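Appendix B.2, paired examples.
Example (i):
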Amino acid sequence: MVPQIRFFIFLFAFVFSIISSGRGGRLNNTNAIEKEALRNIQKQWRITTWETLQSTDPCDRLKPWRRDGENAWINCSCNPNNNCSIIELKVFEMNVSGRIPDALFNLTNLVNLSLGTNRFSGGIPSTVGSLTLLEQLYIDSSGLSGPLPSDLANMTSLKKLWAFDNDFTGNLPESIGQLTNLTDLQIYGTSLEGPIPKNFSALTKLETLKLGDLSGADSNLSFLENMKSLFTLSLRNCQVADEIPTFLRNFSNLTYLFLGNNALSDLFPSEVLTENKNLTTVDVSFNNISGSLSSNDLRAGLSMNYIGTSMNRQSDSEPFLKCIEMESSPCTSNYP
């Protein structure tokens, strides 16, 4: 019996050592400042699934908020000694109200922060600039207001910024032009004012740029010239008073181009259509542009909307324009 007892003692000790090493996720040790920050956030936002944060470690792998796909999700990064930091936080579409607490910006190891589709009040605290490791920030449709803080310039690791459908006011800040690692920038449906800052020209890694609904001073399109990585470009209702630049013909990745509802003028450069073989959607509606498009310009698979302009098609122009007026989607070159 003694050997058997020794075996079970050894087995128990072995299993316990695995759990203690963190493979079972029970003895993680989260950074004390971050742990306290999460507990303060839980109290203010009243997230019910986080209630046990007050007595357990946030990086415990067995807790529901650690499961992949969970909303009100917390993700951690732990070193071999099981010392952990919070790197991802998702509180999406949870009807959370109130202000964003300063405690949030004590989570300085965050890489991904998703707070979209909530009912926050007030603005973004200037302490947002402490999140220097952040790569993705989603604050779309979150109820935020006030100016976008200049401290955003400190977030130089940022690759994605979605800030659309909020009541932001003031000027579209030049500080965003310092975020040169951005690949996806979306700011529209706000009360921000233009012009689009000239230093946005430094954002040459952008693959998606969606700006819209800017009031105030006019903008021009010269800042776009070196953004040749763009796949999606949308500048809707941005008070753009300019010609459509011919350099857009060199944007070989571009598939979606929306310049509608601006003050664009002069001739539409047809080479933008003929030389960008990947373009599938173009909308230049409600601008002061003119020009004549041939059947070669409007190739198969290209959807183009130019209602509200002085442009026309060289043949069958009236049926084509009627198509735009009658259909919910833009016309294609295949319209009979």
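Example (ii):
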Amino acid sequence: MATVTDSVVTPAAAQGSTAADVESAAPTPQHTPLHRFLADPAPLVFTDPRYSDRYFLYATEDGFNDWGSHTFRVYTSPDLIEWTDGGQILDLHDVPWGHEHAWAPAVCEYKGRFYLYFVCEGQIGVAVADSPYGPFVSTERPLIAKDDFPVYPIDPAVFRDDDGTDWLLWGNGTAWIAPLNDDHVSIDASRAIHWVPGDFREALWIFKRNGVYYASWSENDAREPEYCVKYATAASLAGPWTEHGVLIEQNPAEGIVGTGHHGVIHIPGTDEWILAYHAFDAEYGSGYRREIAFAPLQFHADGTIEPVAPTDDWYRRPLV
């Protein structure tokens, strides 16, 4: 495994795509401790003691024209600053039902196995492994195909409720959630819930704190500086949801724009919650050159969250 240091790690073109797929003359990313273009962060800390001493990050490999990556990798860190490239975990060329546009991976652990949910060709797939480092093996068919629901099926995430139920989240234009069956490679469509929070575009994320459900999502287009995250709270996954406005938005004074498609880490045994998000530089960046950063969430006494201001003061939080 190669350690991600202050120098740029191997360009994405050398990791399974041709140079023609990658935007030419890409500069060195300046706003991320990972020192490379990545997007759509799905961060987590596993409770499995074999892996609980480090943060895991699954993300879209970025820097490609038309979001054209076809591989997924895993990154780990002891403190959110020093990162190790854990290697490739899935290549879409090994997926039986599709081979293009590897987007928005998310992983959960269940009964000792690890499940990778991902986008491929505008459908949601699932692959299984015995380790969070893979290799992950895809199922023969998509978990959610294009015509299964009246929504563009992208941006999967997983929320585990207090009763142990894992809910798959997805959607574009409309937010959808449905419980995963015990096999974790299928859903119970009869219990699916959908709604449109705010001006929902994509990237639904849900967590629960002090008995309150928090749903957050991205609005506007990922290529726009105005891409942002908003959030709502509810006493039930079925709602009703109370919207609270912006969780994070652009900071033009710092040259950081397009702050969206996020994930939230909970540090087990604490009331600490950390936001992971991507953004792009106002000058050299674009919707295809995005960078991941982290920031702590600060909760008010009423449970609302102080809006996060993106900066280049990278957040360090050692797990051990």
